[in-house]
From TrEMBL:
A Gene Ontology term for the protein's cellular component: cytoplasm
Binding site for [4Fe-4S] cluster: 112, 116, 119
Key words, A-Z: 4Fe-4S, Cytoplasm, Disulfide bond, Iron, Iron-sulfur, Metal-binding, Methyltransferase, rRNA processing, S-adenosyl-L-methionine, Transferase, tRNA processing
KW NADP (keyword) present: no
Protein name, UniProt field: Probable dual-specificity RNA methyltransferase RlmN
Function of the molecule: Specifically methylates position 2 of adenine 2503 in 23S rRNA and position 2 of adenine 37 in tRNAs.
Molecular function terms, GO-annotated: 4 iron, 4 sulfur cluster binding; metal ion binding; rRNA (adenine(2503)-C2-)-methyltransferase activity; rRNA binding; tRNA (adenine(37)-C2)-methyltransferase activity; tRNA binding
Single GO biological process annotation from the record: tRNA methylation
Organism: Aerococcus sanguinicola
Annotated localization: Cytoplasm
Cofactor details (free text): Binds 1 [4Fe-4S] cluster. The cluster is coordinated with 3 cysteines and an exchangeable S-adenosyl-L-methionine.
Active site: 92 (proton acceptor), 340 (s-methylcysteine intermediate)
Gene from which the chain derives: rlmN
Amino acid sequence: MTKESIYGLTRKEMEERLVEMGEKAFRAEQIWQWLYRKRVGSFEEMTNLSESLRQDLEDQFNFSPLKEEIVQRAEDKTTKFLFQLADKSMIETVLMYHHYGLSVCVTTQIGCNIGCRFCASGLLPKQRDLTTGEIVAQIMYIQRYLDARGEGDKVSHIVVMGIGEPFDNYDNVMRFLRIVNDDKGLAIGARHITVSTSGLAPKIREFAHEGIQVNLAVSLHASNNEVRSSMMRINRKYPMEELFDAIYEYTDLTNRRVTFEHIMIDDVNDRPEHAQELADLLKPMRKLAYVNLIPYNPVPENPYRRSKPEAITKFFDVLMQNNINCVVRKEFGTEIEAACGQLRSQYERKRRERRQREKA
Ligand code: SAH
Ligand code: SF4
């Protein structure tokens, strides 16, 4: 059996485990220091712990459940990592360099059951949720990769926008957020972390009550139910009226801004009348609504194509004229299969083809 990852425990849980092991609770803080400040890769290096404790930890936990399969670094330094997990599943994590810092895009599930028509991740049904340790390990692997480069770089931002629907793996994602945010550990500021959801309304309500300052992004992608349901079947379960009720509960409680992601797909959701409809929908939220226009990254398996640049500009102009905060998202590492999930789905396709060839 695979041992659990030491990265899967919150500091509080680590204290409890140590007490169960007959140790003093304060050891948790020491271990935490080794894990997240000195960022060692083995228990052996934790030299202020007794040898017997190090052995006990070794018996119960391992460090990273990730095995590096492929690393691709693009000209703009965007780096994609394809990892294999203990059960041989593959996940994808991306490091991006911005003017304001370094961000990592993490994966939360193997596959995704939401099945949005435009998305490469939704092509493969969910095999399982990632554990907390598997999500934290993605950040730690990349931070240690940066440490080894010796340039003093630190992961400063996190976007939970990789493969999977984070709110369909809610508890592990929340624990992940608390671990990376812990001020004795990586201490990545909650305001530097964004969680993106396809719109699971009940979970948005739950998130509103967490008392955590993490940013919320909603994959809206359309200005009315008809278009949204044609792209995202989740909209039939939680139509936009219900989604916005939940979003208003979130903004009423937190007074925090919500980012609306809107991928730009040619002739599906990108006409000027769609932009006006979207502006009318978001106007009541005033300055709390922030729209991110994302040029669509075509996936070979579906008929959607990217909007023409003129359509994106026009859409942007209509939103601005209506005083809706809006940006067109910069693209990262386009030459290395930039859209999350694409590297993995391509790899899986090749792996399937290879297996079929081997069988034949
Ligand atoms: N499941 C969550 C988070 C992961 S997807 C969600 O859907 O919000 C992160 C973002 O990338 C979402 O807004 C998603 O709609 C978008 N996306 C998915 N496939 C894309 C593609 N091929 N091109 C551009 N954006 C895409
Ligand atoms: Fe899942 Fe998000 Fe892709 Fe939809 S866009 S299939 S929710 S990962």
